């Protein structure tokens, strides 16, 4: 299907990766993104397993290594700031082999710079309607224009508008894991130097870390909660929910909450997953979080996005029609996605502890383990589980349509 016009909704990791590889295979990709410019900021993300092969084939390995967080160590702290347990950065982050960790905004920048001349990027716009009654897809945009494309791919995340238009309401597919997450930039008032500190309270976890080359730091909050009623477009209401959840917590939490008022990149959402029977309908398909969000707790959302974009473009280059391509893409990716989704619920229970008794036991065990010989081998077992999931796919070497 050379030179097919493909519209991609979302200029995140999955969307840009897909655009890059579609162009590589001879397609004409257009990327529409609601944000006015490529998104900066965000939490640190990991590239593991099969995703490392994707960025290597894009020629980005060296640039990604240069942008790594270079976090040297991590510690669990008490309410008074005492370090209970400490270990090296890779062990603390569950990394092994050639895994790379870098800020999400930096990865997005590198992908965009490698792709911006290979696709038609349209920022500040979004899809409002899809019509598949003809031989192609008629797309209506928020800007008021209407255009026709051969294929449309939703790469617009957990709350995908494309998925809602093509498949139905969000509540049919999004499963709340019972936790909330908030991430944003904060002043580095502790003068951390490539270090991560984690505080654990009953049902509440807060952490702060600094990365190489960034004078600021970032804070992350993870907490268990019944479903909350709030407007996803109202950041002030979200800040109030965050303050309420952590009102009685110690450590540096009050200072970090104050920074939420003026931070330029406040993020707040549920920890949720997406589960769907099919990732395509007609000439519309989904990729990345829109299709199979594993949640931030899995640590594998970025790798799934990179691999998904690569595989979808590759299968489109091989097939004679989009239905066959979409089916082959889903068949190849589904097991990989489900294996990595399984990490989320298991990981979050280790990240957010329910009661004071569980916290005391966990802190005692961590303190003992951090002083024991061979602690790296014990932590490596956790990393091995993640690595197994990160490599649970046979990644083809698709030939370019030159």
UniProtKB/TrEMBL annotation:
Gene3D superfamilies: D-Amino Acid Oxidase, subunit A, domain 2, FAD/NAD(P)-binding domain
Ranges where the FAD-binding domain occurs: 5-321
Pfam families in the cross-refs: FAD_binding_3
Keyword Oxidoreductase attached: yes
Region (Disordered): 85-104
Basic and acidic residues: compositionally biased ranges: 93-104
Residue stretches in coiled coil: none
Keywords: Monooxygenase, Oxidoreductase
Keyword Oxidoreductase tagged: yes
GO molecular function: FAD binding; monooxygenase activity
Protein name (database record): Monooxygenase FAD-binding protein
Organism listed in the record: Stackebrandtia nassauensis (strain DSM 44728 / CIP 108903 / NRRL B-16338 / NBRC 102104 / LLR-40K-21)
